[in-house]
Amino acid sequence: MPSASTLFTIYLVLAIIGASFTIFSFIFGGGAEDGDVHFDGHADASHPDGGSSGITLSDLLSLRNFLMFLVGFGAVGMEMTSAGYNAWQSSFGGVVGGIVLAAIGFLFYRMIAKQQGSSVTKLGALAGKQAQVITSIPEDGYGEIRLNDQFGASITLMALSKDGPLSAGSCVEVVAVVANAATVKKVA
Fold first, then answer.
1. Contacts by 178-181 with C-beta closer than 8 Å and gap 24+?
2. Which of 66, 118, 152, 179 holds its CA 20 to 30 A away from the CA of 104?
């Protein structure tokens, strides 16, 4: 049986390793695309709606959950060793503490993923919207239009006219958007 100080040191190191990598991944993680590597060898990117409605085994066995387990295992094992419990008791308590902390972390990250939203403008969704010409559109060239996207944000796009030249201030309708350039027609 290892001594109490050796057990305490082992638990402390495990807790520090788990906490360090958990904090690192939380700070420097994937941003909106919060990718996570799973033990079954595939990578996953969480979706704003939280992905599928079910919980899969690979969701539970992710690297993030393993690190949270290490933190709980190390912290509870350290406390139980300090309180005078033997190696088997402190290890069992560590396993229970690790499972509890990993479950809390899993639910926390899942809650955050469900609250995420996307503010990316889908250019294809602009077709049919009305816009205003802000830089005149010549007969065979490009000008600029301004319109509001699906979030109400004002955006500016290059535009090509189907109806010949259009002067600044004209009201137009977006017919299509391809490669950040809109094709527009004059609104009667």
1. 180/123, 181/142, 181/157
2. 118
- Residue whose entry in the numeric block shows the structure tokens 């560590």: 94
Domains along the sequence of the chain with CATH? 4-115 (no CATH), 123-186 (2.40.50.140)
**Strand-strand pairing, 130-135 and 143-148:** antiparallel
Query: CA-CA distance, 12 to 64, in Å (whole number)?
Result: 19
CA angle 4, 87, 76 (to 5 degrees): 85
The pLDDT score that the predictor gives to residue 38 is 44
Strand partners, 62: 38
What is the dihedral sign for C-alpha 67, 71, 77, 81?
positive
What sections of the chain are H helices per DSSP? 4-28, 57-60, 63-82, 87-115
Cα angle 167, 170, 174; round to 5: 110
3-state secondary structure of 35: strand
Q: What is the DSSP string of 112-162?
A: HHHH-------GGGGTT-EEEEEE-B-TTS-EEEEEE-TTS-EEEEEEEES
What pLDDT, in 10s, does the model give residues 176-186?
Answer: 988 888 999 99
